[in-house]
Amino acid sequence: MDLRKTAFTTLIGLILVVCIVAGQQVRRVDDGALKNAAKNGEEWLTYGLTQGETRFSPLKQINTSNVGRLGLVWSLNIGPGGGGQEATPLFWNGTIFGITNWSVVFAVDARTGKEKWRWDPEVNQEAVRPRICCGVVNRGIAIYQGMVIAPVIDGRLQAHDAETGKVIWEARVAFPQDQQTITMAPRIAKGKVIIGVSGGDRPTRGFFAAFDAATGRQAWKFYTIPGDPSKPFENAAMRKAAATWDGEWWKSGGGGAVWDGMAYDPEAELVYVGTGNAEPWPEKLRKNKDAEAGKDNLYVCSILAVHVDTGELKWFYQVVPAESWDYDSVQHLILADLNINGRQRKVIMQANKNAFYYVIDRISGSFVSAQPFSMVTWAKGIDQETGRPIVNPEARYGSDAIAISPGGGGAHNWSPMSFNPVTGLTYIPTSTANTFTYAAEETFSPKPGQTTGTVRPAPQPKLPAPPAIGPPPLEGPVRGALVAWDPVTQQMRWRTPGGGGIGGGTVTTAGNLVFQVIGDGRLVAYSADKGEKLLEIQTNLRSGMGPPITYQLDGQQYVALMGGVGTVPTGANAGPGNAGTPVPPKLLVFVLDGKAPLPAASQE
User: What is the DSSP pairing of strand 56-57 with strand 505-509?
Assistant: First the structure.
């Protein structure tokens, strides 16, 4: 009897041990895990939390009733700095993974805040810095099959062992000698790593490519601009695009850089990519003297859908045909299923640089709707039948200077927005008043490594500005805002001051919250339905702020973000406000009733 009892007790103990071990097993990050990433929201496995890039978390332990208790639990210096922290950190297997300036990748124990490993790709900073268009930044990494896949700003792509940081494979995507760098976060789609290259305002031909996640071998490559027509075109899409260009565009590349927005629909097996502006900027400088007006210059300033297996173009929607104002269309892309006019639509959405919010059918590419979410003078509106902009004639500038809104910085730039399916609202970091004075060079003479074709510095406007449409700017000195936008009705539901199209970003949750990181160093929380401010924490990092994430560990919900510029170059590469002793860039992690001290303010 005693033996049977002992055996039974031992068996129960073994079962309990097996159950505990099973419960602690690492959840594998494969295609299924990425597809279902939003079901419980405990981990943040990809840039936008979901492959549809919603940045909506189902977590609700932190909610409108208690978010005011949020406090810092730990922080970590992540490096010397030298640029803004634009990356979205990832959380998996009890570890936070991030990337900071000069593509340095790191892993941190999320329970203790202690660094587990760090990998410096040792970029040749002196040689590469002059080739970088828009700052020594990286926007994120990817996790897949036990690897952390990281972009290197000098054009490399590396896969690291997630446990040790050691490099498993390395691929060459682009070369800085060709004026191309990588600043965007890679995405995973059906076992492939999808990545694009920066190179805006440089003589480059834009592209994005897919690499086998297991080996690093290139699977396919899609150019966004047609090449030299005297040579065979890569595909039918390039042949079609060539007919929409004039002159010898290929000699200056044409533009179309891919440096941010991507999404993936695993059911449709379509990868969605936003493309950059044309080069040079003014349309008149991209035409032969005898060329007729109206050629669209495909595929700049467009949203493209390509098949994940082949890279074949399935559809495109050109947001701004024959674009002249630096309106890259690479902003955050979000996939959602919306009921529009009594019909369920699978859509892709973008709050564009050009200040219009676009809703497009993501299966067919057909236009659904677009309305301005910020002030617009470049266009009278969007033709709701064709989806083409109704451009103000005077906005197609020549050598006479004219002020146009928004300017090249855009009403919404790279700061991630988020979509809450409960409220039905998108939360857009917005510049409500953004203007630039444009004037084309009389004689186009490209500077080494630059192809904008506009007079710099911008002269005083000579022509009157076109009439404005859209929501008026905020009054007072603060022109940045968080805009809550209803994509079904194309109307603004609420707007609150703070932030802007560049820097920081948002995440929204089932706790009826929107967390926003603002470029001046603040972490703010609002009620998602009404926009009531419920929390404001000044992190003292003050600038170079990245977007937040939220995750759950050991039964507690956390909010994490990266921020700070830290040490910056002197001379021509130094920016304003960088004097004094800067606060090193940091990873900050918050929890309910966190008691850790916030970073000390910089001594300026």
Answer: parallel
